Amino acid sequence: MGKAVESGLVTVNLIDLREFSDDKFKRCDDYPYGGGSGMVLMPEPLFRALSAVKDSKTRVVLTSPSGRLLTQNVVKELAREDELCIICGRYEGVDQRVVDRFVDDEISVGDYVLSGGEYAALVMVDAIARYVPGFMSNSESLKEESFENDLLEYPQYTRPAEIEGMRVPDILISGDHGKIRQWRLDQSIEKTRRVRPDLYNRYLLGKEKGEER
Predict the structure, then answer these.
(1) What is the CATH number of the domain that holds 29?
(2) What DSSP line would sit under 27-64, residue for residue?
(3) Residue 140 lies in a domain
(4) Structure confidence at residue 147 as a pLDDT band (50, 70, 90)
(5) pTM for the complete prediction?
(6) Sheet strand arrangement including 83-87
(7) pLDDT tens digit string along 94-112?
(8) How many other C-beta atoms can be found within 10 angstroms of the C-beta atom of residue 203?
(9) Residue 169 belongs to a domain with what CATH number?
């Protein structure tokens, strides 16, 4: 990521929300109306910040546990955008009026709670940047990674060919690339069936619909 930023392939700007607060203590959160625990990010600083940084080509994304799940297909969808502005949710969330006025999409990185949306934003930026042309030294590797075609990636091996009696599968050093491709596909299918039955069922459903696998 650092090299991509230095070379200009990817541009990442961090916005300090406190700079847009008119409170003398630069506070950006307050107690929720109606009572309850926790704090809520106030609308005024976010209204000012978003108005200052976004334009017509900016897609505004809010990190939120109530958003749609960040899958590989969602990553590829977001990677097609010219510019993303990610709001990092904090505390109990953000004032709903920010969502109503500015947010185009709410994204969750999983069914768990983080102390701040910054961690989710980092995950999103890293996953999305991989689809920027030139970011990957070998773009073909993107086609064989986990979650492509609803399958987990096949097992990987490197030298030495044997360690403590454990050998690399003979097929991988056979030189028969057709058989290697089939072995990798078979391994991906079996691993997905065993570890992620939800993905496996999606894979089978895709095959039934005649989707390219």
Answers:
(1) 3.40.1280.10
(2) --EEPPTT--SS-EE-HHHHHHHHHHH--TTEEEEEEE
(3) no
(4) confident
(5) 0.85
(6) 83-87, 58-69, 105-108
(7) 999 999 999 999 999 999 9
(8) 21
(9) 1.10.1270.20
